[in-house]
Structures are given as structure tokens and as C-alpha cells.
Amino acid sequence: MIELDVKADKLPALLDEATYSRLLSLLADQAAEIYTEDVVAFIRDHNISKSGGLESQIGWRPEGNKSLVFTRDEWPAHLEYGTKPHIIRPKDRKALRIPTEEGYVFAKQIDHPGTSPVPFFFADQMERQKNILSVAKRTILSAMD
Predict the structure, then answer these.
(1) Are the beta carbons of 18 and 54 closer than 8 angstroms?
(2) Each residue's pLDDT tens digit, 23-64
(3) By the 8 A CB rule, do 58 and 36 touch?
């Protein structure tokens, strides 16, 4: 799983405490939602996922005055960071069944060469930061009216 904490606790205290606390939570939630939308758009724009399965793995949730952007499963991290060479063995069977053009090939194990990283979660940080700051400015200004 990939996780990113989104915190909004570095604002000067120009508002009363209750409004300030609500604003921090709102900013963290907005930042997490924008980050999630930007990650999904990046995946689509760069044709990283053909099936749409990767997009459905990206989510976020509020956690007090911060929010957490995450992947729902472990496999997107293998895509983001790549993998080292490794051996694949069957879990519940005697052999792996591998589809080919002629049917299937069976093997007790496969020496996988590893994969190169395909960054999507932490890619394009400057653009994501600009999007988040743009919305944050509007939110802060409207809270101060």
C-alpha cells in the first residue's frame, strides 16, 4: 500500500479556534480529494492502466486535522516502485497455469526478471501542489470574509 499524509497545520491563527480547526480539516480534505483526482487523471492521461483497475485503487479518508491518500491494495506499490527479480510459485496448487496462444503451459515456478517503476502516485508533484494551493487560497479567503 502507498500512503500520503495530507496535513494543514501550518497556518497562522487568524481565526477563532473552532473556525480554525474546521478550516484545517476542510483544507486537508480538499487537498486529499484534489490529490486523488490528480493521480487518477495522471493514470488516464498517461495510459498507465488499460483496465481501469488502478484508478479504483486510489482513495482518501479524513483523519482529524489531516487526511490520508492511499492505495487500497499492495500491488499498485509494485507498479509505482518496480520490483526486483523474484521467483513466482503457486499458492494453492502444484503448478502455475500460464496462458499462451496455443493454450496453457504449466510450471512449478517462474523466475520473474522484475519490473521497471511506473510512477503515478508521486509523479507530477509540482502540478498537484499548484492545484492544491489554488483551492486552498480560495478556501482560506472565503473563511476570512
Answers:
(1) no
(2) 888 888 999 999 999 999 999 999 998 888 999 999 999 987
(3) yes
The count of other CB atoms within 10 Å of the CB of residue 48 is 15
104 Cβ neighbours under 8 A, 6+ residues apart: 97, 98
**Residue of 128, 127, 123, 120 lying closest to 31 (CA atoms):** 128
Q: Which three cell numbers stand for residue 122?
A: 508521486
Burial class (CB in 10 A: 0-12, 13-18, 19+), 39: buried
**Cβ(70)–Cβ(1) below 8 Å:** yes
2: its cell numbers: 502507498
Nearest-10 Cα torsion for 72, 76, 80, 83? 130
Supply the pTM of this predicted model: 0.78
pLDDT in tens, 98-131: 999 999 999 999 999 999 999 999 998 899 989 8
Distance CA(67)–CA(36), nearest Å, equals 11
Please state, as a whole number, how many other Cβ atoms lie within 10 Å of the Cβ of residue 99.
8
